Amino acid sequence: MFVVGLSHKVAPIEIREKFYLNPLQQDLLLSELKSHPLVSEAFVLSTCNRIEVYLKRADATVDCAFVVSLIARIKKINLDFDAAPYLYSYEGQHALDHLLRVSCGLESLVLGEKQILGQVKHSVERAREYGTLSRYFNIMTNIAVRAGKKAQHETTISHGGSSISWAAIEMARKMLGDLQDKSVLVIGAGKMGEIALNHLRDLGITKLFLMNRTGEKAENMATQYNCIPASFWNIKEILSEVDICFCAVGAPHYILDKEKIADIMKLRAGRELVLIDISMPRNIDPEVRALPGVHLSAIDDLHEVVDSNMKKRESAVQEVESIIRQKILEFNEKILKLQDNPEFESAHGN
User: Fold this and answer.
1) Which of these, 231, 228, 286, lies nearest to 261 by C-alpha position?
2) Cβ atoms within 10 A of the Cβ of 247, count?
3) Cα dist. 262→148, 172, 188, 195, 267 in Å?
4) pLDDT digits (tens, 9 = 90+) for 153-190
């Protein structure tokens, strides 16, 4: 068992977005791995804060460089820098321990983040549909998901706010104070956008806009969260009015560049604008930061808010690590039983 990846802990966002795999690219990578003679099982986890490839490999020639070259080919990019300093890899029991820590939220930017468990489950289901999971990884991933559920339900690791969207809103509150009298635009009706809407509704925001590429989805969600659906055609007008914009789109390019924001700032009569981009890859041009009156933050800027909230959950870390140790023992017991089965040995060759 082998995992290679990079995360917010070792790679800044400008590196992570080079490696980020959208759903189609994940499928292409799974297809490549499925057809490789030295890979018997695999799944891919790609989120805003981590890109990881889990493999059951025949030998050590399937290494970090092998995975990086596959990703570069699938994304059709030329990696003109040394990626090694940004990568980590684990083998055997260390790979299993890492997956369990990820599933339980111990490796997340927001300690105890709940969304990562759903992302792990989704990645596993995608691999299962592609036929890249067999008995070994089925056991491993089932145990990882159960560990994540147990950590969430039986400890306080996810107490209080536990998402990137929550951290983004906390950052806005730190900058502007009580948000109740502020007007807010959320761009993107995906999971992160919906979580942001839920938090903002609970804060009692009275003027809340939702903008999404698919108008029907925006209208349905706007009804659910008591906000105003808006069209991308009106983005200039709305941004000239609101105090804060949370962007969670995930488009493959910038949807707001420096020139567009500069034009918008001319309409704001000196009023400052807070932009928080929680997209992966980023959807607001970082050069926007240079404009007077504009405050732009991205995912990596959320550390300050996140760190101040960690003390509330640190007491649960030992409990979660105890759950992980139990689940590793459970995994080893199941694998030993499988290895005692002659069918397992003949099928796996080891």
Assistant:
1) 286
2) 27
3) 45, 21, 22, 29, 9
4) 999 898 766 789 999 999 999 999 999 999 999 999 89
Looking at residues 82-97, what average pLDDT do you find? 96
> Which is the catalytic residue, given 48, 104, 245, 247?
48
List the Cα angle 27/30/34 in 5-degree steps: 140
Predicted confidence at residue 242, as pLDDT, reads 97
Q: Is the peptide bond before 292 cis (omega within 30 degrees of 0)?
A: no
Please give the backbone phi and psi of residue 192, each rounded to the nearest 5 degrees, phi first: -70, -40
Distance, in Å, from the CA atom of 123 to the CA atom of 121, rounded to the nearest integer, reads 5
48 included as an active-site residue: yes
CB distance 305 to 174 below 8 Å: yes
Model pTM greater than 0.85?
yes
Q: What residue ranges in the chain does DSSP mark as E strands?
A: 2-7, 39-46, 50-57, 88-91, 183-187, 207-211, 228-230, 244-247, 273-277, 294-298
Helices and strands, number each (H, E), in the chain: 14, 10
**Residues 194-198: what's their mean pLDDT?**
92
Structure tokens at 283: 């959807």
* Per-residue DSSP letter, 284: B
Q: How many CB atoms lie within 10 A of CB 252?
A: 10
Span 65-73, average pLDDT: 95
Q: What is the DSSP string of 128-159?
A: HHHT---HHHHHHHHHHHHHHHHHHHHSSTT-
Pairing of strands 50-57, 2-7: antiparallel
Q: Which residues are CB-neighbours of 70 under 8 A, at least 6 positions away?
A: 29, 32, 33
Question: HSE on the CB side for 238, CA within 13 Å?
Answer: 21
Closest CA to 47 of 144, 128, 148, 119: 119
How far, in Å, are 72, 197, 251 from residue 188 at the CA level? Answer: 27, 10, 10
- The C-alpha atoms of residue 219 and residue 214 are separated, in whole angstroms, by 9
